[in-house]
Design brief:
Length: about 475
């Protein structure tokens, strides 16, 4: 089958041909005709098999079938992505294939100024590619109108519909018309994700061009068992001894990415880090340097690596295994793209044996184990718990939660210092707790009014004087006397 057999218009075919493509990939062969029919789609395909063009081409054609001048603040198509890098990649795809159709488009994500984005939307835009957080911020300022949306696309839908994004998506869906086409594209789909997607799609066409949750056949996978403390040493040796010139390395945390980058630089290996704490400018600069082979190693977290699209990337290294098996598929999918071969190496310590078992179960395949004698693990080292650090998927408002956590931790630390500096017995601690008002109680107290206090004091003095003059007949009698007064 050729692209000319898919029913695409001549202007799109011309752009495709100029990119050097003549034969569509399996996902494109199945998805393009269905999208052109206006049906909802739930499509799963391995990373690097052309998913983006699978919705970009038919979406451009459907938009071109209606001659509509986009009005102020309104948009016609919305593509949501989990990361800035993926948003930029998708935007480039629309620019490449739509260059003869003259649609307006805008990429919207955080980390850059919001005013230029608002200015473009004010004039009206046909296609918006965005991350959910910044898009909600703009919607909150009434800087965008979703009432004319014809097509909604969720790219990397497994992460988009994960717990970190589902609330944002639901908020955005409430602002959109019910009658629209919705497309979900991703490399992996669990049964839970499919159930969740069924609530968003209307009679969707399910497209799976490979066995569910599998890895690309072009990627050779290997595991090296090594002690955690010697991973950096082994990684450096592999890069130098095998003369790897372009390596994408995954860590579990942002701090770990920074630390490993510094260690590699000290070992004489040029490296750069890319993760959520980096500014957009720094992330773009690091990625550009890596693509241009100016940097030998790019160290990344999972969420930052979504959307990294590098032709003929030869090596991917799991410096630390991901906590979520699906992320393993996305990681190694950065290599072996578009029919090219690639290599995925995982450095596994004793703490990660359970993670490796879960990954092999998920991909329904055993990964080849290669023993390196000089790095034989110490059998006396016991496994320790792994802290959760997926590297992304944080809910909106997460920074505020972190700040509150830091405050609590600092208070705990202060108490510990006090306890070490001067001991208090338990009874005195309880007395302090009982006598000292809580923070909430202090906040609820109203500021004192000196004038009101004086009136109350004078009134109480008069009541006390009356009590002394008259014989006491009990609380009830005293209350009656006060009422009379």
């Amino acid at each position: 089958m050729k692209f000319t057999d898919l029913g695409l218009r001549e202007s799109l075919l011309k752009a495709v041909k100029e990119e050097g493509y003549t034969t569509p990939t399996p996902i494109q062969q199945q998805a393009i005709p269905v999208v052109l029919q206006g049906k909802d789609v739930l499509a799963a395909a391995q990373t690097g098999t052309g998913k983006t063009a699978g919705f970009t081409l038919p979406l451009l054609q459907r938009l071109s079938e209606k001659k509509i001048h986009t009005k102020k603040y309104k948009i016609r198509a919305l593509i949501l992505t989990p990361t800035r890098e993926l948003a930029a990649q998708v935007a480039q795809s629309f620019k490449t294939y739509g260059k003869y159709l003259h649609f307006t488009q805008r990429v919207i994500f955080g980390g850059v100024g919001i005013n230029p984005q608002l200015a473009d939307l004010r004039r009206g835009v046909d296609i918006v590619i965005a991350t959910p957080g910044r898009l909600l911020d703009i919607a909150g300022q009434k800087g965008i109108d979703f009432s004319a949306v014809e097509t909604l696309v969720l790219d990397e839908a497994d992460r988009m519909l994960d717990m970190g994004f589902i609330h944002d998506i639901k908020k955005l869906l409430k602002m959109m018309p019910k009658e629209k086409q919705t497309l979900l594209f991703s490399a992996t789909f669990s049964k839970e994700i499919k159930q969740l997607a069924s609530g968003l799609l209307k009679e969707p066409v399910l497209i799976e061009v490979a066995r569910e949750n599998t890895t690309a056949e072009q990627v050779s996978q290997v595991v090296h068992y090594v002690d955690k403390s010697r991973k950096r040493e082994l990684l450096s040796q592999l890069i130098k001894s095998k003369d790897w010139r372009q390596v994408l390395v995954f860590t579990r945390t942002k701090h770990g990415a920074n630390r490993l980058t510094k260690q590699l630089e000290e070992a004489g290996i040029s490296a750069a880090a890319i993760h959520g704490n980096k500014s957009q400018g720094a992330r773009t600069k690091a990625l550009a340097a890596f693509k241009a082979n100016e940097v030998r190693v790019l160290v990344a977290t999972d969420i930052a690596a979504r959307g990294i699209d590098i032709d003929q990337l030869p090596h991917v290294v799991n410096y630390e295994l991901p906590n979520v098996p699906e992320d393993y598929v996305h990681r190694i999918g950065r290599t072996g793209r578009a029919g090219q071969s690639g290599e995925a190496v995982s450095l596994v310590c004793v703490d990660e044996h359970k993670l490796l078992f879960d990954i092999e179960k998920f991909i329904k395949s055993k990964i080849k184990k290669v023993h390196i004698e000089a790095f034989t693990p110490d059998p006396n080292i016991k496994a320790e718990p792994i802290q959760n650090g997926r590297g992304g998927g944080q809910k909106r408002g997460g920074n505020r939660n972190k700040q509150n956590t830091r405050k609590k931790k600092s208070n705990v630390g202060a108490d510990s210092i006090s306890a070490h500096g001067k001991k208090k017995n338990n009874s005195s601690k309880r007395a302090d707790m009982e006598s000292a008002p809580t923070e909430n109680q202090q906040k609820k107290r109203k500021p004192k009014n000196p004038h009101a206090e004086k009136i109350g004091s004078d009134l109480q003095a008069k009541l006390d004087a009356l009590d002394k003059k008259k014989p006491s007949t009990g609380a009830g009698s005293r209350q009656n006397n006060r009422r009379k007064k």
